[in-house]
Amino acid sequence: TTTIAKLAANFSILAGANVGLVTADTYRIAAVQQLRTYAGIIGIDLLVAYTREELKGAVDQLADKALILIDTAGRSQNNIMHMGELRSFLEVLPDPEVHLVLSATTRLQDMLDVADRFAETGFDRLIMTKIDETSFFGALYQLPRLLGKPLSYLTSGQSVPDDISVASNEKVARLIMGDPP
């Protein structure tokens, strides 16, 4: 949720894009309110979708936006029912670009397991969070290579709209070589 708020703020405030925001994270306590607060500060629309039909309706309602960002609930890759529900939500979206968000503090083998289980969502890219909470950055290189999926963004803290950057090859190389996040 914080990562999508950072993206929304950067695209809306810094890039000047007309952004719409939808949250389907109606499971975590206060998730909707947290995103509503960010949307209010940023000055963008936020719609809440409890069902896949509501998600489709929200996307239709925001059709005039240049970019629609959709927040989904963080799910355990081991919960088959929740994975099916997530896949079902994504199926109503017209040509989505799906980003799988992973913590850089997670072991590479566990990241691979998560990615394998989320493969059914058809994710396109990876976002690595919490790069400020680790000293080992090899997974930033290994994971995209092993999965054949590019890194899109890196996050390094809780500050919105800060603490997020495009995941360039140069930035990843510098982290691996010992430059601080």
Describe the structure.
There is one protein chain. The protein has seven helices and seven strands. The chain has helices at 2-14, 31-42, 52-61, 80-91, 108-118, 138-147, 169-176; strands at residues 19-23, 45-48, 67-71, 99-103, 125-129, 151-155, 164-166. The strands form two sheets. It has a four-stranded mixed beta sheet with strand order 4-5-6-7, sandwiched between helices. Strands 2-1-3 form a three-stranded parallel beta sheet, with helices on both faces. Helix 1 packs parallel to helix 2 (31-42). The longest helix is centred in the first third of the chain and has 13 residues, at 2-14. 29% of the residues are buried.
Task: Provide a brief overview of the structure.
The protein is α/β, with parallel strands linked by helices and 181 residues long.
Features:
4-stranded mixed beta sheet; 3-stranded parallel beta sheet; 7 strands; alpha/beta; 42% helix; 181 residues
Task: Outline the secondary-structure elements.
Layout: H1 2-14, E1 19-23, H2 31-42, E2 45-48, H3 52-61, E3 67-71, H4 80-91, E4 99-103, H5 108-118, E5 125-129, H6 138-147, E6 151-155, E7 164-166, H7 169-176
Helix pairs in contact: 1-2, 5-6
